[in-house]
């Protein structure tokens, strides 16, 4: 009797789980593709590239100045006093420290490049998330995955909502 009760309970559990799974509506997007094909992201990337190019030019000027000062120091080291040599060396070292500080300010972990990238892409990401949320609610999706994260091993193409998100984003 008890074995039969366990079997019936187990059978009910299995059938109710499979019935639930049939009603589950799932979709996925590819966030990398969305970003790369988004007109807003392309424009943000152009802006960031231009700003970064300007920073590279500034860094190059600093490098050139350090190289010039170092060459002057080496060329004049035989003709100048120890005191002047020490001053020149100190000047070269100071410029080099400024250069390193500049690099850190721009390209460091939380530097201007990182901050500017966040400023430019956050509104786009927020907009993409809002579109995904809207599609999910209007089309009654239970779950929408992101294929760019590598968690989807297989999915049918008709579950891909990437083009739908891109159409709405690029309108």
UniProtKB/TrEMBL annotation:
GO cellular component terms, A-Z: cytosol
Keyword tags: Coiled coil, Signal
Signal peptide start and end residues: 1-21
Gene Ontology terms for molecular function: unfolded protein binding
GO biological-process terms attached to the record: protein stabilization
Coiled-coil ranges from the UniProt annotation: 34-79
Superkingdom of source: Bacteria
SUPFAM superfamilies with a match to the protein in the record: OmpH-like
Keyword Signal attached: yes
Gene3D superfamilies: Skp domain
Family: Belongs to the Skp family.
Name of this chain's protein: Molecular chaperone Skp
